[in-house]
């Protein structure tokens, strides 16, 4: 999925849905760190993808917060 499509999809969600999705991504990021520590990680590119998705969510949440005020 391209970045623009991800952004459009995320902007369509409510703030509560975004927060829940962010928590899921943080859990997945933690799991990847554990896999890396035990030597089981084969998809190193997932770190970058998850980190960027979390940043996108944070940006959209701050935009929604500014519009709401």
Automatic annotation (TrEMBL):
Pfam families: Ribosomal_L29. The keyword Zinc does not apply. The keyword Ribonucleoprotein applies. GO terms for molecular function: structural constituent of ribosome. One of its GO terms (biological process) is translation. Belongs to the universal ribosomal protein uL29 family. This is Large ribosomal subunit protein uL29.
């Amino acid at each position: 999925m391209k970045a623009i499509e991800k952004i459009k999809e995320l902007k369509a969600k409510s703030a509560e849905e975004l927060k829940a999705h962010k928590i899921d991504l943080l859990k997945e990021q933690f799991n990847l760190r554990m896999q890396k520590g035990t030597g089981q990680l084969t998809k190193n590119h997932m770190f970058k993808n998850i980190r960027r998705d979390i940043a996108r969510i944070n940006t959209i949440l701050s935009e929604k917060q500014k519009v709401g005020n």
